């Protein structure tokens, strides 16, 4: 799988969201645009369909066969085949995509210390542009620079990841039912299933969050203790103690933290 991120302005002044940022990397079915070759016409820029491997000419060609393939198949994303041109185009959402590097994330600059006892209650929701990554059973399950960080008194932050940046095909509804948060509402739980390996209740989401927390709708949060690795800005996360709270402890966050023995009534 390849992870893509929408280009900063998406090729448009206002920017654009994309719901197809995880793609396969199929082998090309041909070396050129066969429709152009049949007409003995040199193709324009070649695009590879990232669903089926079809190769077609881009919109700069008179045939625009890559776009016609989308019209016929509904396959949304095609990437440039020319050497040195690392980009893709999502026909459905009409946005340019750039590959997210699979190299280890560079460490972000240190942030000022934050005491969890200065976090508010009710919790606050804050955007975070650091690279957040969740890994499990040898797979990157989620990766984003668009997380939402929930800050609540006595708790390390919880990072919520947009569904477009999560490999949702690896998530299976859990059998454990739901829990209720007095602030955010009813939480639904998810198993992470990679091949034969299943991590029960490793993630949760709020399908219908309470007013004040609607930004979290359908975002996913992960228990660091139930997957193999979580990182924020290249830094490994330490899990909050306990089997209920899912806070992420990084170097800038200061405790003491709720979750351990004797802290239930904090």
From TrEMBL:
Leader sequence residues: none
Domain UBP-type: residue ranges: 16-115
Region Disordered, annotated ranges: 101-121
Recorded superkingdom: Bacteria
InterPro entries linked to this entry: DUF427, DUF427_sf, Znf_RING/FYVE/PHD, Znf_UBP
Pfam families for this protein: NTP_transf_9, zf-UBP
Protein name: DUF427 domain-containing protein
Organism this protein belongs to: Streptomyces racemochromogenes
Species classification: Bacteria, Bacillati, Actinomycetota, Actinomycetes, Kitasatosporales
């Amino acid at each position: 799988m390849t992870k893509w991120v929408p280009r900063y302005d998406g090729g448009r002044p206002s920017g654009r969201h994309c719901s197809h940022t995880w793609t396969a990397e199929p082998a090309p079915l041909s070396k050129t645009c066969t429709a152009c070759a049949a007409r003995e016409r040199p193709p324009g820029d070649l695009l590879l369909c990232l669903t089926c491997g079809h190769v077609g000419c881009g919109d700069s060609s008179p045939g625009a066969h890559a776009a016609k393939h989308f019209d016929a198949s509904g396959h949304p994303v095609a990437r440039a085949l020319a050497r040195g041109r690392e980009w893709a185009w999502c026909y459905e959402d009409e946005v340019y995509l750039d590959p997210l590097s699979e190299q280890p994330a560079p460490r972000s600059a240190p942030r000022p210390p934050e005491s969890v006892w200065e976090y508010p209650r009710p919790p606050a929701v804050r955007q975070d542009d650091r690279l957040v990554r969740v890994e499990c059973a040898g797979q990157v399950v989620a990766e984003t620079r668009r997380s939402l960080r929930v800050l609540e008194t006595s708790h390390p932050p919880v990072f919520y990841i947009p569904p477009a940046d999560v490999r949702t095909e690896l998530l299976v509804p859990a059998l454990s039912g739901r829990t209720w948060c007095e602030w955010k509402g009813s939480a639904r739980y998810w198993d992470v299933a990679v091949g034969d390996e299943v991590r029960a209740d490793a993630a949760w989401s709020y399908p219908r969050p309470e007013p004040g927390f609607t930004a979290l709708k359908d975002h996913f949060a992960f228990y660091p203790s139930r997957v193999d690795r979580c990182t924020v800005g290249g830094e490994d996360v330490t899990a909050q103690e306990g089997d209920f709270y899912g806070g992420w402890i990084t170097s800038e966050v200061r405790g003491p933290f709720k979750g351990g023995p004797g802290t239930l009534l904090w």
